[in-house]
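task queued by scheduler; priority normal; single chain, no ligands, no partner chains; default sampling; output format set to structure tokens
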Amino acid sequence: MSPSRDRRLAALVEAGMVLASELELDSLLQRIADLARDVVGARYAAVGVLAEEGPHHLSRFVYSGIDEATAERIGDLPRGRGVLGVLIEEGRPLRLPEISEHQRSYGFPPAHPEMHTFLGVPIVVRGRVFGRLYLTEKEEGEEFTKDDERIALTLASQAGIAVENARLVDEAKERRRELDVLEERERISKELHDGVIQSIYSVGLSLQGSLSLMDRDGETARRRIDGAIAELDNVVRDVRSYIFELRPKAVEEHGLSAAIKELARDIEVNALVGTELDVDEQATLSLDEHAQTDVVQVIREVLSNIARHAKARNVHLALHMDDVGFELTIEDDGIGFDPGSVERGHGLRNMEERARKLRGHLEISTRPGGGTRHRLEIPREG
């Protein structure tokens, strides 16, 4: 086996390992195009993804070897016609020594680089064609060979497995989000029933009793009506806190820093609690996506508890990092509580579970009349 062939096979093995480690689909498609250029030895490469609404159209086209300025001058991306359409329709490898000589070729748009030699192979996922891998301009002006085609097919096979892995990860994330929503709905439904709805029912009974007392004992009736009004104020406060809790989870999609600011605004508006933020922006960027989601949920749970139970006027939230890890602290000036007399509810168990997922430690310090401090420590990875 020649040294050149040895190098290409080694590069192919390495490419397979790289693709297997990439689980985000858009990044994966770019990796496939970049690696194809290196492994096969071409100046340009691209991955076209077939549209679900029709087998002869492309929904995405990811390229490698063309800079952004040139791409902007070229304009619209290919849609799967011309020579690319042949490959889509026939579903088998296609090698051309000169693109312009093919009967389906109708040239390139202005500003498009010159391209002559061509190699295209299908990318198959779950037994169905997911897209196509295209390569043009073999190094040193040579034509693509049968050996190049075999290398490209092997890489396309590795790419198909990697795409399947990325799709499975996306499906798992979506199911986890759906499960989180269902669990949250069940919890809030129970708390609404046990808290707000029971309070409204109690107010209704009190007002009914007040009606019968109006003629006989006006003073007692007045006190009962005043008590009902106060209880309704509490119900309004509870409903505000549930509105705060039901903020769309999409807030997390904008990043940890934006999510924290949004949650702070929510508790200010819906629970009339002042917030002071001391957040290290670099810390918010250094946590990975999964850790950011868990941190947001812990903050959401703590602020929700403050809104409903603490009777706090102010909250201080800080997030910092050092060489050891990350530290999140949330302190309020509310009424506090006696840890020994409070039942461990779903919210606390949920926060402790998220801390375990982060390999971290959650500490809660409080005393009656002395406010509450939540502290979450998260170690750095590795």
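post-processing summary
- The chain has a mean pLDDT of 79.
- The chain is about 55% helix and 20% strand.
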